[in-house]
Design goal:
With about 80 residues, the chain is mainly alpha-helical. It contains one helix and two strands, in the order E-H-E. The chain has one helix spanning about 30-50, and strands at about 1-5, 60. It has a two-stranded parallel sheet with strand order 1-2. Helix 1 links the parallel strand 1 (about 1-5) and strand 2 (about 60). The longest helix is centred in the middle third of the chain and has 21 residues, at about 30-50. The chain is globular. It starts with a strand and ends in a 20-residue tail after the last strand.
């Protein structure tokens, strides 16, 4: 699994992905708040999987924030 870093809508793929929302509107969460929430959700999922006996390998996304949707492994793994 890839830990979220700089998690946000990806402008390169948002046009063809109905699940992505555009830029934050007034009153929405800040980028830092979104990162915190995404990290908590990720940690909770990892903990739940490990409690179920599933071994989890968690990798860090690029620290520069250039991969906002890196936590979705379909973006970098291909099974043939």
């Amino acid at each position: 699994m890839i830990r979220p870093a700089g998690f946000r809508a990806n402008p390169q793929t948002a046009g063809s992905n109905a699940f992505q929302e555009g830029p934050d509107q007034e009153g929405d969460s800040t980028a830092a708040e979104i990162d915190t929430l995404a990290g908590r959700e990720f940690d909770g999922l990892v903990a739940g999987l490990e409690q179920a006996g599933i071994r989890v390998v968690a990798l860090e996304a690029r620290a520069d924030g250039s991969t906002p949707d890196a936590l979705f492994p379909n973006n970098w793994v291909s099974f043939h």
